[in-house]
Amino acid sequence: xxxxxxxxxxxxxxxxPPHAPRQSQSREPQWARTMQPxxxxxxxxxxxxxxxxxxxxxxxxxxxxxxxxxxxxxxPSLLSENDDxxxxxxxxxxxxxxxxxxxxxxxxxxxxxDVGYSxxxxxxxxxxxxxxxIAYDPCRPVxxxxxxxxxxxxxxxxxxxxxxxxxxxxxxxFVNDGTTSExxxxxxxxxxxxxxxxxxxxxxxxxxxxEETPGLEGSMVALASSEYAEVPGxxxxxxxxxxxxxxxxxxxxxxxxxxxxxxxGLIMHELGHVVGLDHIEDxxxxxxxxxxxxxxxxxxxxxxxxxxxxxCVPEL
Length: 316
Ligand SMILES: [Zn+2]
Hints:
- The radius of gyration is 18 Å and the shape is globular.
- The strands form 3 sheets. A 5-stranded mixed beta sheet has the order 5-4-6-8-7.
- With 316 residues, it is of the alpha/beta class.
- It has one domain (7-307): Collagenase (Catalytic Domain).
- It starts with 6 loop residues before the first strand and ends in a 9-residue tail after the last helix.
- It is built from 6 helices and 9 strands, in the order ββαββαβαβββααβα.
- The chain binds zinc ion (ZN).
- Residues 4-6, 27, 29, 269, 273, 279, 289 line the site of zinc ion.
């Protein structure tokens, strides 16, 4: 699993402190609403690796989040004793992975739009540094479900609207599989055939709280992460993810005149993490950790278009 974090400051809020490196597997956003900067929340971890080193990105090394690494399912070590295995055979009937290629087409289902050049984005570090970046397989849909329990009044349609914008910016085709009763978990299984059938579990959006999701304590408003899987000889790709939204904090946001607009921006920021973007130092970008930016900007657009061109891996 992997998680990212993000601090978002309200327009009337102070700048948030840099992120402390996160401990584990997912990325989360943190929106600072109070006058007190939130304390560092995470333990040690690897800093993200910029795709193209630049002074700005080097600054991010010390402040960023860690990418999640999960899915040890298909690590080469699993095959080291039998190199005759074809790449499609790491899966067995009893494995923790679905049959390969469920829902996969021969070509990408969509293409990202042409965008102008910008390097104002940061890619999540892939598990293998020789891989340019990590992303969802564009040859298959990105399914998602929503746990609607405790959704704040006034949030109808916001997840779908945010998904639509990220879909357009990446070319990734998202499919809404409806609602679920599954709750968020740092140990969420990427394959839950008893719940979702023999395919990778869909991306889970959940309205949650600080008790269920301790990472949302304080001013942290949302968390997001994706999990990857890989087969030997093929690039790692994301197969599922989670977006955890603090219902109480979002309820407070919605009291403002632009609450829905801002919450949609929050969800888009989270989705940016889900599809493979890390935080950027540029405060004009949606993917800045704390800046009050609620729409996709030029750097975000370039990054989203890039992660929409990931490899297709039908072996997964
Ligand atoms: Zn973030």
